[in-house]
Write a structure and sequence with these properties.
With 136 residues, this protein is an all-alpha fold. The chain is 75% helix and 0% strand. The chain contains five helices and no strands. It has helices at 2-16, 27-52, 60-70, 72-89, 95-126. Helix 2 runs antiparallel to helix 4 (72-89), helix 2 runs parallel beside helix 5 (95-126) and helix 4 (72-89) packs antiparallel against helix 5 (95-126). It is elongated.
C-alpha cells in the first residue's frame, strides 16, 4: 500500500507533460491565415481581370463591374471563410446575423478594391488601350 502512494504521485507527474491524442489545434489562427490568403487571391483576381478586360468604349464603372463579376467565385470563398471565422468567435450568434456581418466585411473590402480598380480602368482608357491584355 505504501508503494502505491509513492508510485501514484510519480505516475501523475509523468502524465502531466502528455497531451491528449484527441486535442485539436486552435482553429482561429489557421482560419485567419486562410482568410488572409483568400483576401490576397481575391485582390489578385480582381486586378488581373481589370488589366485584361477589353476596354472598347465602355465606362470605367462598367469595366469594374465586369472585373468583380469575373471573380465572384473567389469572393464567395472569402465570404464563406469570414463567416466561419465569425461563427467561431460568436457561436451563439444567430446564423443570419453572422451572414450579414461576414457579407459586410467583404463589402468593405470591395469598396477599397473598387476605388483602385476604377483608377486602373481610367488609366487604361486614357492611355488609349482597347485590346485584351494591354500592358499597364
Amino acid at each position: 500500500m505504501t508503494k502505491l502512494f509513492i508510485a501514484l504521485p510519480l505516475f501523475l507527474l509523468a502524465a502531466c507533460g502528455e497531451t491528449p491524442a484527441e486535442q485539436q489545434p486552435v482553429a482561429g489562427p489557421a482560419l485567419r491565415e486562410k482568410i488572409n490568403t483568400r483576401t490576397a487571391e481575391y485582390g489578385e483576381c480582381v486586378f488581373g481581370a481589370i488589366k485584361s478586360i477589353e476596354i472598347r468604349e465602355r465606362l470605367a464603372s462598367t469595366l469594374a463591374d465586369e472585373a468583380f463579376k469575373n471573380c465572384r467565385g473567389s469572393r464567395d470563398a472569402l465570404t464563406a471563410d469570414v463567416l466561419a471565422f465569425r461563427r467561431l468567435g460568436h457561436p451563439s450568434e444567430q446564423q443570419s446575423y453572422s451572414k450579414v456581418s461576414a457579407e459586410q466585411s467583404v463589402i468593405n473590402l470591395d469598396a477599397g478594391l473598387r476605388e483602385q480598380v476604377l483608377v486602373i480602368a481610367t488609366q487604361r482608357r486614357l492611355a488609349g488601350e482597347t485590346g485584351k491584355n494591354a500592358a499597364h
